[in-house]
Amino acid sequence: MTIETIKSIVLTMLIATSLLLTLAIWNYKPNYEALEDNSVLNAKTKIDGKQESLSGIIEPKEIIFHEGGDIYALASRQDSLSLYEAFRQWPLDEFESVPKQTLNRKSSLEIIYPTSVPLSVLASTLTLNEDDQVIPEFMVDRIFVDISADQTLTNVYFYSDEDESMYNATIRNFEAYKELVDYINDPSSHLKYLSIGEEEERPIYIPAGQIKLPKYTYTTYAIGENPLINVLFDDPNKVRENQTSVGQSIYTDDRMQMQLCYNKEYMRFTNPSVQPESSMTYSDLIRESMRFINDHHGWTDNYNLYDIDATGSTVKYRLQQNGYPVFNEKGLSAIEQTWYNQELFRYKRSLFQLATPIENDSTKTLALGEQVDEHLAKSRTQYPLLIDDITIGYTMEVKNQHPFIVTFEPAWYYKTVGGNWRPVFEEPVNQGGTH
């Protein structure tokens, strides 16, 4: 076979291959739709939590009995919440403004909320004899229920720490009073309390004796960022992701920004285009923030209304464990929102949900109430004047892995007048024994 013949054969093969490739290109139809489906955000707008009602997120932090010179609470936190649920069913009517001098604190049931709550909001979680009663826009810090005498008419006082007056309503139901008496006449269910700053307008109550509480450990589910992007940004398709030098993800559309922090433990959204000019009424702030969280099923665990700032622009809902508030130094135990002009300015929350409890028989015995009082008196200047509150809570720690492992350990906490919560004892060994 000559060289020319071989060249002709090779050339013919190359031409045939070229024709086949050309035909393949003409007939190839790329899967643009699939690529688009993968390149834009999933349309999901729910984060697999639940919706809540006002009565579900507004609960007291403490229920105290004042009777015969004694101060006590029910030994079981769950019993206290059951008593509060019963109180919510007692029919109230005849709301009227009365002077504070009307109140007899020394023979009453005192229901204390973690933050001031508008009476109009609070009343919507209670039972009213007449639905058309006019409820004023009055901030309530605590409720007093008169237990001074055997009576068919019980006075209920809605009390503000700041106002000179308070509001009175009545319960015309003997069964309601009898239910209270049953608790009063059962000393086995009582837990003695101390009153700190009793001469002040708003004393702080803490249990006097030792409290032993369980520790908890949970696995978690991750909360994906895509549903939040769909909820928070006007046009999710315009959102771009950037990585910072410390490994944080930042999503932005050049106007709003969502930042994922602490290895995606936490999310911070900000809309700088909202001008911080006009805050909302406290009632509107609570209702609007709840509606917003309900819309994307954002109640991923048990949260309670825990703080509203003085400007009426920022509201905070705190995680609850075993009936106690949860604290975390990174802010992972709270859902926080700031609103101006009916628009969301800032939204902060954790990006995990508690899943399966890991079996754990450990308990912790906390320091006595007297020890807490003595320690704060020695370690804090102008105590108790510059202390706003003291409570038992749970410290939440998150193990930095995926999925996260979350632990809860009971501890004493105090609140400064600036609104910050801090552990009473910085060193865990001072809290008491661990078992």
From TrEMBL:
Family annotation (InterPro entries): YycH, YycH/YycI_2
Domain Regulatory protein YycH residues, every copy: 4-424
Protein name, per record: Regulatory protein YycH domain-containing protein
Biological source species: Pontibacillus litoralis JSM 072002
